[in-house]
Please model this.
Amino acid sequence: MSKSPERAIERINLTNQFLIAMPGMADPTFSGTVVYLCDHSERGALGLVINRPTDIDLKSLFDRIDLSLEIEPLQHLPVYFGGPVQTERGFVLHDSTEQHYTSSISIPGGLEMTTSKDVLEAVAQGSGPARFLLTLGHAGWGAGQLEEEISRNGWLTVEAEPAVMFDTPAEQRFEAALSLLGVTLSMLSGEAGHA
Model:
Protein backbone atom coordinates (compact mmCIF):
# COMPACT_ATOMS: atom_id res chain seq x y z
CA MET A 1 0.00 0.00 0.00
CA SER A 2 1.58 3.27 -1.03
CA LYS A 3 1.17 6.52 0.80
CA SER A 4 -0.64 9.35 -0.88
CA PRO A 5 1.72 12.07 -2.15
CA GLU A 6 -0.67 14.59 -0.63
CA ARG A 7 -0.10 13.42 2.94
CA ALA A 8 -0.17 16.20 5.48
CA ILE A 9 3.17 17.68 6.42
CA GLU A 10 3.48 17.88 10.19
CA ARG A 11 3.93 21.47 11.26
CA ILE A 12 6.60 22.10 13.84
CA ASN A 13 5.87 24.66 16.53
CA LEU A 14 9.00 26.64 17.41
CA THR A 15 7.51 28.59 20.34
CA ASN A 16 10.04 28.71 23.24
CA GLN A 17 12.95 28.08 20.87
CA PHE A 18 16.01 30.11 20.02
CA LEU A 19 16.58 31.08 16.41
CA ILE A 20 20.32 31.40 15.86
CA ALA A 21 21.31 33.36 12.76
CA MET A 22 23.56 31.37 10.45
CA PRO A 23 26.78 33.04 9.22
CA GLY A 24 25.24 33.52 5.76
CA MET A 25 22.26 35.49 7.09
CA ALA A 26 21.55 37.96 4.29
CA ASP A 27 19.55 40.42 6.41
CA PRO A 28 22.01 42.67 8.33
CA THR A 29 19.29 43.38 10.90
CA PHE A 30 19.55 39.78 12.07
CA SER A 31 23.21 38.99 11.37
CA GLY A 32 24.80 37.51 14.51
CA THR A 33 21.56 37.47 16.48
CA VAL A 34 19.76 35.06 18.74
CA VAL A 35 15.98 35.45 18.68
CA TYR A 36 13.70 33.99 21.35
CA LEU A 37 10.40 32.89 19.77
CA CYS A 38 7.47 33.93 21.96
CA ASP A 39 4.83 32.68 19.53
CA HIS A 40 4.82 30.52 16.41
CA SER A 41 1.68 29.32 14.66
CA GLU A 42 0.26 28.87 11.19
CA ARG A 43 -0.36 32.65 11.18
CA GLY A 44 3.34 33.47 11.59
CA ALA A 45 5.86 34.08 14.35
CA LEU A 46 6.85 36.73 16.89
CA GLY A 47 10.22 36.81 18.62
CA LEU A 48 12.62 39.06 20.50
CA VAL A 49 16.32 39.52 19.72
CA ILE A 50 18.07 38.79 23.03
CA ASN A 51 21.71 39.64 22.30
CA ARG A 52 21.71 43.16 20.89
CA PRO A 53 21.84 45.74 23.72
CA THR A 54 21.22 49.37 22.80
CA ASP A 55 22.90 52.41 24.34
CA ILE A 56 19.71 53.10 26.34
CA ASP A 57 19.66 51.89 29.94
CA LEU A 58 16.58 51.15 32.04
CA LYS A 59 16.83 54.40 34.00
CA SER A 60 16.78 56.48 30.79
CA LEU A 61 13.81 54.56 29.43
CA PHE A 62 11.89 54.77 32.70
CA ASP A 63 12.55 58.55 32.81
CA ARG A 64 11.07 58.85 29.30
CA ILE A 65 7.82 57.19 30.39
CA ASP A 66 7.58 59.12 33.68
CA LEU A 67 8.49 56.24 35.97
CA SER A 68 11.09 56.60 38.71
CA LEU A 69 13.55 53.71 38.89
CA GLU A 70 15.53 54.00 42.12
CA ILE A 71 16.83 50.42 42.33
CA GLU A 72 20.54 50.91 41.65
CA PRO A 73 21.47 47.55 40.05
CA LEU A 74 18.53 47.80 37.63
CA GLN A 75 19.20 51.38 36.53
CA HIS A 76 22.18 50.42 34.40
CA LEU A 77 20.71 47.33 32.71
CA PRO A 78 20.51 47.80 28.95
CA VAL A 79 17.37 47.98 26.88
CA TYR A 80 17.69 45.60 23.93
CA PHE A 81 16.89 45.95 20.24
CA GLY A 82 14.14 43.35 20.02
CA GLY A 83 13.64 43.56 16.28
CA PRO A 84 12.63 45.94 13.49
CA VAL A 85 8.85 45.83 14.11
CA GLN A 86 7.19 48.39 16.47
CA THR A 87 10.53 49.80 17.64
CA GLU A 88 8.76 52.47 19.70
CA ARG A 89 7.03 49.81 21.82
CA GLY A 90 8.46 47.97 24.80
CA PHE A 91 8.35 44.20 25.19
CA VAL A 92 9.28 42.60 28.52
CA LEU A 93 10.32 38.95 28.51
CA HIS A 94 10.25 37.59 32.06
CA ASP A 95 9.83 34.64 34.36
CA SER A 96 6.24 33.67 35.10
CA THR A 97 4.95 35.46 38.16
CA GLU A 98 1.92 35.18 40.40
CA GLN A 99 1.18 38.78 39.53
CA HIS A 100 -0.94 39.20 36.41
CA TYR A 101 -0.23 42.05 34.03
CA THR A 102 -2.72 43.70 31.70
CA SER A 103 -1.22 42.51 28.43
CA SER A 104 0.80 39.29 28.76
CA ILE A 105 1.11 36.06 26.90
CA SER A 106 2.20 32.90 28.67
CA ILE A 107 4.82 31.00 26.74
CA PRO A 108 5.08 27.24 27.16
CA GLY A 109 8.28 26.63 29.11
CA GLY A 110 7.60 29.05 31.98
CA LEU A 111 8.18 32.52 30.54
CA GLU A 112 5.83 35.39 29.79
CA MET A 113 6.01 38.34 27.42
CA THR A 114 4.30 41.52 28.59
CA THR A 115 3.67 44.70 26.64
CA SER A 116 1.73 46.73 29.22
CA LYS A 117 3.26 49.44 31.41
CA ASP A 118 2.13 47.76 34.65
CA VAL A 119 5.07 45.32 34.52
CA LEU A 120 7.48 48.29 34.41
CA GLU A 121 5.63 49.94 37.31
CA ALA A 122 6.10 46.70 39.29
CA VAL A 123 9.82 46.65 38.40
CA ALA A 124 10.18 50.28 39.57
CA GLN A 125 8.50 49.39 42.89
CA GLY A 126 10.72 46.35 43.42
CA SER A 127 7.84 43.89 43.04
CA GLY A 128 8.34 42.95 39.38
CA PRO A 129 9.65 39.70 37.96
CA ALA A 130 13.00 38.54 39.35
CA ARG A 131 14.47 38.00 35.88
CA PHE A 132 13.49 40.02 32.84
CA LEU A 133 14.76 41.44 29.59
CA LEU A 134 13.29 44.63 28.10
CA THR A 135 13.36 45.22 24.36
CA LEU A 136 12.21 47.96 22.05
CA GLY A 137 10.63 46.35 19.02
CA HIS A 138 10.20 42.75 18.03
CA ALA A 139 10.85 40.43 15.12
CA GLY A 140 7.87 39.22 13.14
CA TRP A 141 7.26 36.77 10.31
CA GLY A 142 4.13 36.22 8.24
CA ALA A 143 2.60 32.81 7.59
CA GLY A 144 5.26 30.43 6.24
CA GLN A 145 7.97 33.11 6.11
CA LEU A 146 10.07 31.79 9.01
CA GLU A 147 9.82 28.21 7.74
CA GLU A 148 11.08 29.42 4.36
CA GLU A 149 14.05 31.23 5.97
CA ILE A 150 14.94 28.10 7.96
CA SER A 151 14.74 25.94 4.83
CA ARG A 152 17.16 28.35 3.11
CA ASN A 153 19.74 27.81 5.90
CA GLY A 154 19.06 31.19 7.53
CA TRP A 155 18.50 29.95 11.07
CA LEU A 156 19.36 27.13 13.43
CA THR A 157 16.77 26.29 16.09
CA VAL A 158 17.17 24.87 19.57
CA GLU A 159 14.99 24.71 22.66
CA ALA A 160 15.51 27.90 24.64
CA GLU A 161 17.39 27.95 27.93
CA PRO A 162 16.37 30.88 30.18
CA ALA A 163 19.88 31.06 31.70
CA VAL A 164 21.20 32.14 28.28
CA MET A 165 18.81 35.13 28.27
CA PHE A 166 18.97 36.13 31.89
CA ASP A 167 22.29 34.95 33.34
CA THR A 168 24.72 35.15 30.39
CA PRO A 169 26.33 38.45 29.33
CA ALA A 170 24.83 39.73 26.04
CA GLU A 171 28.07 39.37 24.10
CA GLN A 172 28.26 35.65 25.04
CA ARG A 173 24.65 34.71 24.25
CA PHE A 174 25.25 33.80 20.61
CA GLU A 175 27.98 31.27 21.47
CA ALA A 176 25.98 30.07 24.51
CA ALA A 177 22.93 29.39 22.31
CA LEU A 178 25.11 27.54 19.79
CA SER A 179 26.60 25.43 22.58
CA LEU A 180 23.08 24.12 23.34
CA LEU A 181 23.39 22.39 19.94
CA GLY A 182 26.92 21.21 20.70
CA VAL A 183 28.47 23.40 18.02
CA THR A 184 30.70 26.45 17.87
CA LEU A 185 30.72 29.33 15.39
CA SER A 186 33.86 27.98 13.73
CA MET A 187 31.95 24.77 12.84
CA LEU A 188 29.26 26.61 10.88
CA SER A 189 29.26 27.44 7.20
CA GLY A 190 27.10 30.06 5.57
CA GLU A 191 26.43 27.71 2.67
CA ALA A 192 23.68 25.10 2.61
CA GLY A 193 24.87 21.62 1.78
CA HIS A 194 23.43 20.00 -1.35
CA ALA A 195 24.08 16.47 -2.50
User: Anything to note?
Assistant: The longest helix spans residues 58-64. The longest strand covers residues 85-95. Helices lie at 58-64, 72-75, 118-124, 145-151, 162-166, 173-179.
